[in-house]
């Protein structure tokens, strides 16, 4: 693989300091600038060969089109829905992520939300702070013996399954790519979504955000669920349709929701967050020391590998590292034939 010259990198979000240190140790000039407005980014992006982001920087086509020298967009994390991968690919810019660095953290937060939903922990804690001692109001239900539906059986879905099995939950799931025999080996019985919805006491979604996953849970699918089903979204806002979720909470069709992610972040629309049966976090799935250290280090090392002309190595398992792998190969090998990575993935 021919080395790629990367002399300057802009880090536009709070990324672990190891990222900067590794890049600088390898002779790359690093600028850290947070909370840049879109116009500012458009004006300055031409000065950089590389851009490192997390989820808050929206790397839109107009930013990419202004990026005359950009060779790489490094996502220190998993989801690349904030990057216009298609526009980047057309411009020959490699998009890389660090998909395994925050898996455990996102899985652990998902489990925390499932447990909090079952026992009303945040609401009870808030009530205590207000001086109350209300043991009746916060009566919960055991997770033991309940059915957890996991939609998206990739890295995080798998880790959630094993953790919740230890609480005695039955885990069922759906994934169009992960073979049923593979998920069965981790104790998850796969079935169609039609079969899955009516069986679940809890549903958690762990898919990327892409056209085929927008609104996976909507009015129609909520209606197919058990009355009182509880849902968790630690993946991306919009996989559970927010307006449909409000309606399902209002009618009691949904008994509670644990949300880490929102269509708009931070959300202006407050009806979900203010609902008494909703517990929420400000996109904290990857916000642990460990996950940030891994993601910051991984993205820097991947950039250095490219500068040194090394092949990209990483935790590549089947199609699940698809953004790193396919974007890398697409831009390096079939630069003349850019394809839409999301389409490619959703059809394979
Ligand atoms: N809240 C947070 O801070 C974090 C959120 N995430 C989100 O979690 C998502 C999942 O992450 P990983 O498990 O690492 O990704 P992954 O790529 O390992 O797994 C995603 C799985 O979803 C499956 N999938 C795709 N379309 C589907 C559909 N229509 N129905 C059911 N399954 C479908 C894929 O086949 C794949 O197995 C990321 O894309 C990201 O958006 C990831 C890390 C932290
Ligand atoms: O890695 C992901 O997909 C995440 O959602 C984590 O986002 P963050 O890096 O915390 O902005």
TrEMBL record:
Gene3D superfamilies found in the cross-reference section: NAD(P)-binding Rossmann-like Domain (3.40.50.720)
Chain ranges of the D-isomer specific 2-hydroxyacid dehydrogenase NAD-binding domain: 112-285
Protein EC: 1.1.1.95
Record CDD domains: PGDH_4
Keyword Disulfide bond: no
Subunit (UniProt): Homotetramer.
Protein name per Swiss-Prot or TrEMBL: phosphoglycerate dehydrogenase
Natural source organism: Dicentrarchus labrax (European seabass)
């Amino acid at each position: 693989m021919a080395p790629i010259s990367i002399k300057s990198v802009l880090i536009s979000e709070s990324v672990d300091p190891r990222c900067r240190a590794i890049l600088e140790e390898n002779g790359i000039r690093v600028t850290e600038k947070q909370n840049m407005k879109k116009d500012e980014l458009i004006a300055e992006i031409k000065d950089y060969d590389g851009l490192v982001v997390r989820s808050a920087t929206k790397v839109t086509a107009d930013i990419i089109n202004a990026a005359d020298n950009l060779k790489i967009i490094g996502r220190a994390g998993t989801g690349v829905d904030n990057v216009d991968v298609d526009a980047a690919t057309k411009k020959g810019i490699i998009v890389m992520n660090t998909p395994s660095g925050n898996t455990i953290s996102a899985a652990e937060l998902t489990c925390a939300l499932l447990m909090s939903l079952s026992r009303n922990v945040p609401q009870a804690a808030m009530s205590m702070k207000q001086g109350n001692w209300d043991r009746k109001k916060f009566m919960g239900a055991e997770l033991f013996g309940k059915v957890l539906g996991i939609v998206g059986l990739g890295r995080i879905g798998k880790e959630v399954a094993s953790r919740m099995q230890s609480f005695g939950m039955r885990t069922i799931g759906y994934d169009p790519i992960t073979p049923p025999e593979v998920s069965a080996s981790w104790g998850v019985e796969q079935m169609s979504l039609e079969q899955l919805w009516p069986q679940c006491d809890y549903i958690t979604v762990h898919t990327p955000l892409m056209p085929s996953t927008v609104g996976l849970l909507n009015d129609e699918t909520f209606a197919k669920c058990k009355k009182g089903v509880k849902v968790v979204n630690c993946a991306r806002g919009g996989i559970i349709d927010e307006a449909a979720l409000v309606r399902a909470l209002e009618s009691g069709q949904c008994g509670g929701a644990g949300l880490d992610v929102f269509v708009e972040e931070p959300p202006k629309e407050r009806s979900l967050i203010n609902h008494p049966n909703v517990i929420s976090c400000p996109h904290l799935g990857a916000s642990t020391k460990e996950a940030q250290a891994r993601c910051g280090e991984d993205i820097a090392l991947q950039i250095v590998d490219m500068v040194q002309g090394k092949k990209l190595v990483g935790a590549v398992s089947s199609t699940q590292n698809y953004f790193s792998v396919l974007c890398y190969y697409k831009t390096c090998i079939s630069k003349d034939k850019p394809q839409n990575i999301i389409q490619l993935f959703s059809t394979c």
